[in-house]
């Protein structure tokens, strides 16, 4: 009797309800074994994946992937969303210094970790397309480079000093507002620039029918070409993890869409936003982001 060979893959995924069953091997495979790299926060692995292919399988912010694709990096996207969320509540200002709404932003300084940060791209897209803000007149202040080395902040974008901190600059009035990631500060002084953000997000979804994507999963082009069955098995396990976590919750929106068709609307929109904001050199068709194997993956 032959023993099936097990392929070991270097994997970097964040800690979520839907990845826990993979990390504790409650969901396993007869053909694959995952060697997980635990890096917190998970966005710190994105640069290593783009620049060094440090993993075989990695979570990645969708704007990072679009920029990597734009610069010919040998990575292939899986239609598997690890993190999605509405962004309307992620731009905050210090209410003790006076109210700020989207129309007040032109001419003011607004901080964001990186100009290519996916949350920032979504928010700038909302401001421009839904609130009529001329985002070119906002003075953007960044703190880090993009994960893709070839990208440089656009002209006019300011880099904060090495000792500067986004939250303190907002509280001290050095910045009119700041764009925050998944961990929003628990400080009652900080309020959303977009008024009533939960209601605004519901209205936005009703209008566009899109659940914004933050992080998806990529594999190296080498793995995709040499072992397409392994890529399908990775996807199967990720999908099983989603189901084991009970996602989406009954009656709730699916913020973790799986499958090419399910991911397409949000991907099309974020591509459009990236083109508007000059983050990528051309408008990709959604089909181009995948290869023949991953494009065929669905939610069944």
Q: How would you describe this protein?
A:
This protein has 300 residues and is of the alpha/beta class. 32% of the residues lie in helices and 18% in strands. It contains 10 helices and 11 strands. The chain has helices at 20-23, 46-52, 62-70, 118-130, 166-172, 197-208, 221-226, 228-244, 260-276, 292-295, and strands at 7-12, 32-36, 57-61, 75-84, 91-94, 109-112, 139-142, 158-159, 177-179, 190-192, 213-220. The strands form 2 sheets. It has a 6-stranded mixed β-sheet, sandwiched between helices. Strands 2-1-3-11-4 form a 5-stranded mixed β-sheet, with helices on both faces. Helix 4 (118-130) crosses helix 9. The radius of gyration is 20 Å and the shape is globular. The mean pLDDT is 96.
Describe this structure in a few short sentences.
The chain is built from ten helices and eleven strands. With about 300 residues, the protein is α/β, with parallel strands linked by helices.
What's the helix-strand series?
EHEHEHEEEHEEHEEHEHHHH
Count of β-strands: 11
Mean of all residue-level pLDDT scores: 96
List the strand order in the largest sheet.
8-7-6-9-5-10
Task: State the CATH superfamily name of the largest domain.
Answer: Periplasmic binding protein-like II
CATH class of the largest domain: Alpha Beta
The rough form would be described as: globular
The CATH topology of the largest domain corresponds to: D-Maltodextrin-Binding Protein, domain 2
How big a fraction of the residues is strand? 15-25%
CATH architecture title of the largest domain? 3-Layer(aba) Sandwich
Low-confidence stretches: none
Q: How many individual helices?
A: 10
Largest sheet descriptor? 6 strands, mixed
Class by SSE composition: alpha/beta
User: How large is the radius of gyration?
Assistant: 20 Å
Percent range for helical residues?
Answer: 25-40%
N-to-C CA distance: 32 Å
Task: State the domain count.
Answer: 2
């Amino acid at each position: 009797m032959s023993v099936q060979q097990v392929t070991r893959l270097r994997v970097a995924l964040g800690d979520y309800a839907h990845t826990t069953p993979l990390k504790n091997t409650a969901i396993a495979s007869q053909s694959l074994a995952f060697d997980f790299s635990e890096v917190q926060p998970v966005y710190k692995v994105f640069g290593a994946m783009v620049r060094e292919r440090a993993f075989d399988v990695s979570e990645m912010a969708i704007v990072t992937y679009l920029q990597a694709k734009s610069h010919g990096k040998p990575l292939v996207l899986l239609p598997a969303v690890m993190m999605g969320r509405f962004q309307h509540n992620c731009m905050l200002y210090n209410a003790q210094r006076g109210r700020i709404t989207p129309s007040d932003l032109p001419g003011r300084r607004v901080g964001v970790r990186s100009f290519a940060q996916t949350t920032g791209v979504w928010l700038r897209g909302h401001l421009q397309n839904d609130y009529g803000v001329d985002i070119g007149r906002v003075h953007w202040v960044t703190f880090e480079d993009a994960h893709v080395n070839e990208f440089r902040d656009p002209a006019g974008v300011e880099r904060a000093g090495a000792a500067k901190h986004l939250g303190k600059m907002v509280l001290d009035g050095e910045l009119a507002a700041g764009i925050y990631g998944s961990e929003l500060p628990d400080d009652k002084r900080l309020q959303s620039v977009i008024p009533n953000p939960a209601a605004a997000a519901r209205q936005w979804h009703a209008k566009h029918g899109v659940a914004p994507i933050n992080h998806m999963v990529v594999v190296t082009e080498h793995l995709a070409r040499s072992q397409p069955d392994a890529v399908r098995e990775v996807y199967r396990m990720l999908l099983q993890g989603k189901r084991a976590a009970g996602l989406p919750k009954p009656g709730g929106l699916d913020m973790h869409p799986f499958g090419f068709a399910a991911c397409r609307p949000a991907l099309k929109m974020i591509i459009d936003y990236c083109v508007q904001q000059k983050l990528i050199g051309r408008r990709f068709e959604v089909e181009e982001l995948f290869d023949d194997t991953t494009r065929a993956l669905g939610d069944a």
